[in-house]
Description:
By secondary structure, the chain is of the alpha/beta class. It has helices spanning about 20-25, 50-60, 75-85, 95-105, 110-135, 150-185, 200-210, 255-260, 260-270, 285-300, 320-330, 350-360, 375-385, 410-420; strands at about 5-10, 30-35, 65-70, 90-95, 190-195, 225-230, 240-245, 270-280, 305-310, 340, 365-370, 390-395, 400-405, 425-430. About 45% of the residues lie in helices and about 20% in strands. A six-stranded mixed sheet has the order 6-7-5-8-9-10, with helices on both faces.
Amino acid sequence: MTNEPHQAVLLSLDRDTAELSQLTTSLDYTVSKIFIQQRNHPDVNTFLGSGKIKEIQEFLENSTEQYLIIVNGELKPSQWFNLEKRFDAPVYDRIHLILSIFEQRAQRKEAKLQVKLAFLQYERPYVRELIHRARAGEHPGLMAGGEYQVDDYYEMIKKQMKTIRQELAKIRNNRDLQRKTRYRSGFYLISLAGYTNAGKSCLLNLLSGGQVKVEGKLFSTLSTTTRRIPKQFHAHTMPILLTDTVGFIDNLPSWVIDAFHSTLEEIEVADVVLLIVDASDPPELVQKKLHVSLAELKELNVTSPIIIVLNKIDVLTNKQLNTLQTQLQHNADSIDKPMIPISAKHNQHIDDLFDTIYTVLPQKTKLHITIPNTPSAHPFVSHLFNHTQVNDVNYGENIILDVACNSKMKDKIKAQVQDLKGTAIETEKTR
């Protein structure tokens, strides 16, 4: 639409508007002006007080531009209605802004369904407010306009939510089947998690040799992307699949997180979680984002080992990095977790990251394998090199191997060894 505003005005109860400005820019809007009224609690009717509302009205009336009004907080339906009526302009709160970014970024079917579900959940209380206003004789606004009456629209929302949840359940079941197949093939699953724009996609590209799109915008990744880590990228041979996931952000309602559950469960079921942190942020912001991310992982019931990965260290001095690590290592949230500083952009300390990953991989089984050295044994040996960590191999009348493998595939290996008239002895099981 040609008359759609591309300029935004931000309204806030405090001066901390940096993240809201970033979110606004990520939606391709330019922040033209910021109105701040410092107060402990929002006005019950209009979020900001009457004096500030009048000041904003005068600014809008004296401008020839059309603006999107963005509120740095979560609006009640009555507040949203009153603000749109006062300003005669579209009004988004912080949640609406984030969901709009999700909608813009969603490309795959699953992501689009999840965003639609979250938007429908968001709209429900607002539509109820419109129903109340319409029955009271007030104009119901634009959200439920078009061919639907607001009460019909509310019923449609409930039906659509049920349908979308059913479709997402099917996608989730298919992913679960794929995951079980990968486990049986000996793969370990590692998920990249962290605050939005911490550099997860950049790290995925580095470790997998992939070409996932990397943007300097918040929530550039909405769908999960899974890649195998090629052996040439590291000294170890245990097969690993790496999954990039949607970034975290502070103060998201639980129902938004629930809408993305089928995606976020890739973190929940991972063998290891790499928690990516943007170390180039100011130290207090690093600590805040780390706290938010760890809280989200706790909400997701993550029990797997978590490695904190301090990314973008290339922009820090050694002194700044040492100070930051000392601060974080004394933080109650991260005191018991391995912490590896890296630069995904410049491939710094990636070997240290891999060494730490292999140290914490769960349920590794060590097998001592002896098989006759026959032509039929050679494909099996190649399979072991591709799907296990071969620590030692000797060729003679028999082929003798010491391997470490995912415990989920040990029975399959033992059965194959038995078919080759050999023996496989479990020597050790490690974490």
